[in-house]
Design brief:
Length: 397
């Protein structure tokens, strides 16, 4: 299941006192045992952070398994762990996305899964290892944090360090951006995230309801009502195909293969609540838009501590029935129907659902800084931009 978002606080002061002359050793992940160590590095770095949301360990292991993750059919990757005095103090994944380089005509190396203690020499050593591998592969630039596809965690936090990310948003300490700049990285593009109160006191703005009525009168599109998940399973592959089409011009996206689509359908649909998915179809019944939301699972993931068993499942199931924060997970509108108001119709229906269920807030996931259309939709509900993420770039020396 892949649901998809300060200084290290030591267990003892003896660990905290690290001599500057102690060498940093970079080891390449070469076995499943190494990969488990790679996945668990953040548990040391964020062990006392109230904001870090641990991913499921089994999902992280599967991410780098060529037999499990179809995205690896069009990508290569190397993972590196930094050690000092035999203790892991940082990690990084270097990703060579053939799909992205083919699409954009680049020779670019991506980096992701980057974490480090508050020591820039550890960061330098990790990036040196990643860039050296990229140079061997003929790459000339490096960007990140990014994953294999746009569904993976991406973007380094540059603000909002005292906020709880969604399960598809990574967390990092506030010294990370400083390290990136000191290592010569520059801004490529930013993502915004918004937290919006559900309008229990004021209700949905009347002008939006009037606008929605006019849109309904002039459109031939209709929103589906699902009776059971079998009906969702039938159209689920088309949802991801629509993402392929609608996001083709969006920064950093790569096309999903049919195998990858099938893989993700199995990951997402079992945890879907029927009234939290809105789908629009044309008169022929063809999918033209969707909006997928889910109750925030961030607190549940914190309690699960990366494990489903023995009690992780219990926390996740409770989280799916919570009504504190509603995460706007993903959405897409077919190109020829963009700008015609179907996104507003879906947002209003989701807001009605949130009001009836008693949700207090809605949280967006990553929105590109130049995505003014979506931001214009949010503005009617008094949002707060509470987090900003950045993709960095640099030439490989």
């Amino acid at each position: 299941m892949r649901i998809f978002p300060a200084c290290i606080c030591p267990k003892s002061w003896a660990y905290a006192i690290i001599r500057l002359e102690d060498p940093i050793e970079i080891r390449t992940v070469a076995s499943r045992s190494d990969l488990k160590k790679f996945v668990k590095v953040p548990y040391r770095i964020f062990q006392d952070s109230p904001w870090w949301v641990p991913p499921l360990i089994r999902d992280e292991l599967e991410m780098f398994n060529t037999r499990k993750n179809p995205a690896l059919e069009e990508a290569e990757t190397r993972q590196f762990i930094a050690y000092r005095n035999g203790e892991p103090v940082g990690r990084i994944a270097a990703i060579l996305s053939h799909a992205a380089n083919t699409k954009y005509g680049t020779r670019n190396l991506r980096f992701g899964w980057f974490d480090t203690i508050r020591d820039i020499e550890v960061a330098r050593a990790l990036f040196s290892a990643a860039e050296s591998w990229g140079k061997e592969k003929g790459m000339t630039t490096i960007t990140g944090p990014q994953g294999f596809t746009d569904l993976d965690k991406e973007g380094m936090m540059i603000s909002g360090f005292d906020t709880l990310p969604t399960i598809v948003g990574m967390y990092n300490h506030d010294y990370y951006p400083q390290f990136m700049e000191e290592m010569g990285f520059e801004k490529e593009i930013d993502y915004f995230e918004f937290l919006t109160p559900i309008p229990h006191e004021t209700g949905i703005p009347p002008k939006l309801l009037r606008l929605a009525d006019r849109i309904k009168e002039r459109t031939s599109l209709r929103l589906l009502e699902f009776k059971n998940k079998k009906e969702v399973w039938k159209i689920a592959p088309d949802i991801f195909r629509l993402i392929n089409e609608a996001f083709t011009d969006i920064y950093g996206t790569v096309p999903f293969s049919e195998k990858f689509i099938e893989y993700n359908v199995k990951q997402y649909i079992p945890f879907l609540k029927l009234d939290m998915l809105k789908v629009a179809v044309d008169p022929d019944g063809k999918l033209v838009a969707f909006l997928f939301t889910v109750p925030s699972l961030s607190r549940a993931f914190q309690k699960a501590r990366g494990k489903l068993f023995p009690f992780g499942w219990f926390h996740l199931l409770r989280g799916l029935n919570s009504n504190e924060v509603l995460d706007f997970y993903m959405a897409a509108v077919k190109k020829e129907h963009q700008g015609k108001g179907i996104d507003l119709l879906m947002a209003i229906e989701i807001t009605k659902m949130a009001l009836s269920r008693g949700f207090k807030y809605a949280e967006s996931n990553l929105e590109l800084e130049d995505n003014t259309k979506v931001q214009a939709l949010w503005k009617h509900f008094n949002p707060t931009r509470h987090r900003t993420r950045r993709i960095y770039n640099k030439e490989i020396p």
